[in-house]
From TrEMBL:
GO terms for biological process: gibberellic acid mediated signaling pathway. PANTHER family: EXTENSIN, PROLINE-RICH PROTEIN, GIBBERELLIN-REGULATED PROTEIN 12. Belongs to the GASA family. This is Gibberellin regulated protein. Keywords: Gibberellin signaling pathway, Signal. Residues 1-27 form the signal peptide. Transmembrane segments: none annotated. InterPro entries: GASA. The keyword Signal applies. It comes from Eucalyptus grandis.
Length: 92
């Protein structure tokens, strides 16, 4: 019986984690001025999990993304100035 409850707890953890990821992966969600542009840029990134997280966070913070799927960061100063501890851009 204890094994069954362990299985249930793992399933519940997976379910909650999946729901949180789904909320993060809606890149052009609330606050974005152009949700389709956010979706296009965020979904084109490699390393989907971390990129989607930061891209979604960016869309909520800065409300817009540069044109295209990569680069052109100089178009949006808010986007361009967001870097990691190593000085690399957080967003694609």
């Amino acid at each position: 019986m204890a094994c069954f409850s362990r299985l249930q707890s793992r399933f519940l953890f997976f379910l909650i984690t999946s729901m949180l990821f789904f909320e993060v992966s809606k890149a052009g969600g609330k606050g974005s001025l152009r949700p389709e542009a956010c979706d296009y840029r965020c979904l084109a990134a490699s390393h989907q999990m971390p990129r989607l997280f930061f891209c979604s966070k960016y869309c909520a913070k800065c409300l817009c993304v540069p044109s295209g799927a990569y680069g052109h960061m100089e178009e949006r100063p808010c986007y361009d100035n967001w870097t990691t501890k190593e000085g690399k851009p957080k967003c694609p």
